[in-house]
Amino acid sequence: MTSEEFVRELDEGNQAILKRLAPDDTLKPEVEGDLNVLNLLKVALRNEIEATEIAARWQVTTNDVDVKMAFARQAGDEAKHYRMIVDRLRELGFDAAGFNPVAKGYGPLFQYLDTLKTTVERVAAGQFTREAIAVVKNRQFIEFCERAGDKVTATLYRDVIEPDEHFHHLLGRSLLLRFATTPDDQEAARRAAARTMSLAEEIQLAALKTAGIHHAPGC
Ligand SMILES: [Fe+2]
Ligand SMILES: [Fe+2]
Questions:
Q1: What is the CATH superfamily name and number for domain 3-20+44-211?
Q2: Which ligand lies nearest the alpha carbon of 46?
């Protein structure tokens, strides 16, 4: 199939899974308990630092100018999100100076993404799929913030972070159209996207079991 047909098929498959990953009936903010905006923003810091670093690692291991600059753009945006979330956490009463979100090591999705060596797999997994997940998770998180009465955090996500993550997804889309042209490349991209989706589902299930978290923001 053409890369246009391939990207359409991959997108439809991803969107179907995302409906399962982000059910609408789980938005119950517990403003008094542990499940609050502040704690979810700490989870977000971890996601942002991992997204920054994977894009930075990939940025220096490609010679293609468009790919290099797409990862550079993403790394810069994710680092900007990190700083904005640190600023918001300070307003909420948490000083993130000296806080290292990856002190206990990188998560399973980061470790998987770090094994990917080809551009077609990297953009299918790290941009096209991971960022599609982020958009859904962030829309859910915005709703959560609204219900918790935190308009400032909701606005930060609605006006800046979510549009950036959507742009990263579109960067992945344009690169997939260029690189997913042969049956082998399409199969590799399909596999990388599927693994990313299933890791995201596993991570969400684990967060739900251990911390009751349904809707940590994505990246
Ligand atoms: Fe992103
Ligand atoms: Fe981000």
A1: Heme oxygenase-like (1.20.910.10)
A2: 2
Q: What is the pLDDT of residue 52?
A: 98
Query: From CA 101, how far away is CA 119, in angstroms rounded?
Result: 28
169 CA → ligand 2 middle, Å: 11
pLDDT at 28: 52
Q: CA nearest 212: which of 30, 67, 14? A: 30
Distance 165 CA to ligand 2 centre (A): 6
pLDDT of residue 131: 96
Structure confidence at residue 30 (pLDDT): 46
Helix, strand, coil percent values for the chain (each to nearest 5): 75, 0, 25
Residue 108 contacts residue 203 (beta carbons within 8 Å): yes
**Domain limits, the chain:** 3-20+44-211
Residues 174, 68, 193, 179, CA torsion sign:
positive
pTM: 0.93
pLDDT digits (tens, 9 = 90+) for 107-116: 999 999 999 9
Residues lining ligand 2 (ion), CB within 5 A?
Answer: 48, 78, 81, 219
Q: How far apart are the CA of 4 and the centre of ligand 2, in A?
A: 26
